[in-house]
Amino acid sequence: SANRKFHPDDTVIDIGGHKIGGGYMQVIAGPCSVESEEQICEVAKAAQASGATMLRGGAFKPRTSPYAFQGLRAEGIELLLKAKALTGMPIVTEIMSGDQLPLFDEVDVIQVGARNMQNFELLKLLGKTNKPILLKRGLANTMEELLMSAEYIMAGGNMQVILCERGIRTFETATRNTLDISAIPMLKRLSHLPVVVDPSHAAGIPWMVEPLSLSAIAAGADGLIIEVHNNPSKALSDGPQSLRPAEFDAVMKKIGGMMGYM
Ligand code: PEP
Ligand code: MN
C-alpha cells in the first residue's frame, strides 16, 4: 500500500544506480518531445553536464489537438535508447496505452501522464510490470485520488511508484497551472513514496522554473523533472516553457547552492 500507516519508512527507488526517496534527490531533465537523434543527444549531454541524472523525452505525446505533433512514437523510444547508450542516463518516457508496453522493455521509468492518471486499466497493467512508474497528478485530481491511482499500481505487486505534482487547474491564468506546493508535505505525510515536482508544466513559463524548483526542494520534494530544449523556439511541443541548456545550468547551480544550506 502507498499508505504510510502500513509502511512508516520512506520508499527508496533505485533507477540505474540513482536512488530517489528517503533523502536521495534526483533531477530528471530533457525535452518535452524527442524530435531527432541530434536533439535528444545534445540535450542529454548538456543536461548531464549540469547535474541531471536522468533523461526525459516524450515519444507518445498526449496533445490537446489531434492535429498537433503526436510524437515520434516507436522511433522516439529508439532515439532515447541511443541517448542512453551515449550518456548512461536512465530514460523516462510516457506510455499512453497498454498496447505500447512491449516498446518499453529498455525504458527505465515509465511515465503516466496527467491525462491518464485515472486510466485504471493502464494502471493495473503497469502494476504487473517491474518498472518504476512516474505517476503524474491529473489536472483536476485531488491528492487522495492520486494516492488511489498509486494504489492501483501497487495492488498489482509493483511497489516502485514515484508521485509527481505538476500543477493543477485553478481560476488563475497567469501561469499554465497552479503548482500545489502543499501537495509535497501532504503526500509525504500520507505516503512513503517519493514525490517529484514538475515546475515546467506547472509554470508554463521558463523564468519561473527556478523559483518553483527551489520552493519544491524547500518543501521536501525528492526530485524535479524539468523541460530542457536546445532550441525552444523551434520545439515541436512545450517550447514556450522549456529552458535552454545554459538556463538549466543556472537553475542547477542555484539548487546546488541552496542545498548547501539545508
Ligand atoms: C509531459 O511531461 O510532457 C506531459 C505531457 O506532462 P503532463 O502529463 O503532466 O501534462
Ligand atoms: Mn511537455
TrEMBL record:
The keyword Transmembrane does not apply. It comes from the Bacteria. One of its GO terms (biological process) is aromatic amino acid family biosynthetic process. One of its GO terms (molecular function) is transferase activity. Keywords: Transferase. The keyword Transferase applies. Residues 17-252 form the DAHP synthetase I/KDSA domain. This is 3-deoxy-D-arabinoheptulosonate-7-phosphate synthase. It comes from Acetanaerobacterium elongatum. The chain holds residues 71 to 332 of 336 of the full protein.
